[in-house]
Amino acid sequence: MEEFFHLRLGHAPTVVRVSGGQGARDFNASTESEAYGSGAAALVPYKALKAMLGDGMSVTEIADHFHVSEQLVDFRMQVSKLVRRRKRA
Question: What's the alpha-carbon Rg for the chain, to the nearest Å?
């Protein structure tokens, strides 16, 4: 999903350089963060996440529902400011 959002957001392709048998690519933290965050939001929408947490679902149950990792659910909760809701649930 992250790669899709690189395309959708119009990010320039990274450049891979090979020198002495070693490869390296350009890295732009801002575009990587933007693509990852957008992909995560598409996979775990805010409204559904908020409702599921409100219903008392666990991170594992939410991850299973969306077919994503628990780490991705945790990430969405943090960036969506829903961490406190989880602690209360």
Answer: 17
CB 59 within 8 A of CB 50: no
Residues 3-26 pLDDT 10s? 767 777 788 887 778 877 787 878
- What CA–CA distance (Å, rounded) separates 34 from 9? 9
CA dist 89 and 82 (Å) reads 11
SS3 14: coil
**Cβ atoms 53, 28 nearer than 8 A:** no
Q: Count of CB atoms within 10 A of residue 61's CB?
A: 14
The answer, as to whether pTM is greater than 0.70, is yes
For 82, the 3-state DSSP assignment is: coil
Q: Residue holding tokens 């048998």? A: 21
pLDDT in the model for residue 89 = 44
Phi, psi of 57 (to 5 degrees): -70, 145
